[in-house]
Amino acid sequence: MAYDASVESVRLIESGLDADPIRLSRRRRFAAVAYDVHGYAAATWFVRRGHGTFWHEIHTLAFQNGEWSRLGGGGHNDDEDGLADRPPAADMLGALTSTGGGSTALASGSYLPDRPQFVSYAELRVAREVAVVDLGRGELKPAPRHGRLLVVWRTHPPVVRALGPGGDGIATLDLAAGNADAPKRGLWSLRRYAG
To answer: Based on C-alpha coordinates, what's the Rg of the chain?
Structure first.
């Protein structure tokens, strides 16, 4: 069963995540993984079961003329649905990584000339040690069980921080510079942002 990306994205933005998806099956063919809204820009992430693979699909949206409209998106396939419990940082490339990203151009004439003409996003993955993620704009998001999040922006890529249960900084990811630094507990990773 396919899903309507525009309808499901708007539903996700307006209502949030209904439940923590455990696994996909023959009966449950798609699930919302993550979303982020910042001003008039948004991104949604769904995983869809395909024939012998899982499709991770990210959609970008803009709030224009009183409603959310889908701009486009991208994605990738994987052997896993990505909904399993998040691993410890030692099993990843660090406590906080960016696994991909992209941007979509706004329709011509839908923006002011002095404003950025793109909606950009980064896919984030956090380890088991992370309790909360600071998206770099004064907004904290709890780390989901599966550890996958999105961050969206229109102007400058944010600096994202992973925080432990006590609020201590575990890792920092500067999406503009494309690197991560984890000064505590010896965790460190380097990821290039692809957007």
So the answer is: 16
